[in-house]
Specification:
5 helices; about 20% helix; elongated; two-stranded antiparallel ribbon; alpha+beta
Length: about 160
Amino acid sequence: MVVVMRMIIDITRLRSGIDEYADIDINYSFSQEQLKNTGILDLNNVSIKGKITNSFGKLHLNVKIEGVMILPCSISLKPTKYPFLSQIDDDLDSLLEDFDKNEANTLDIFPIIWENILMEIPLRVVNDDLSDVKTEGDGWKFITDKEERINPELEKLKDLL
């Protein structure tokens, strides 16, 4: 099942010159179906605020996307909060080249918003609470970035210098 979401904005008054801008003020929660195969466990109450302006016949999008995504910890797989902030400030024609064309009087900004959220997903997150995670075992030890580590094979070369 393919879930297609839309954030339709009526731009009739904007294109005709009656209004100088169209406000965008949306709080959006993504469903589990939308988050499938993204690595995001949960994404609720994403704030999307900004405006679309018409300048000499060209539409310009200026939007701030802010929220907290829940991602699995890279070490323990515990759900971990990751706040993000994304700013879009660009010409709409260039942004919409990669997506389906919109109708003349409406604009669907969901693909633009979704693409920018996906670009904010970090490669890994680490939960602050790793107290119940095993850090040593038979022949192995978990090493953090804070610990200084010397490769035992290269340490032998130190004696030669």
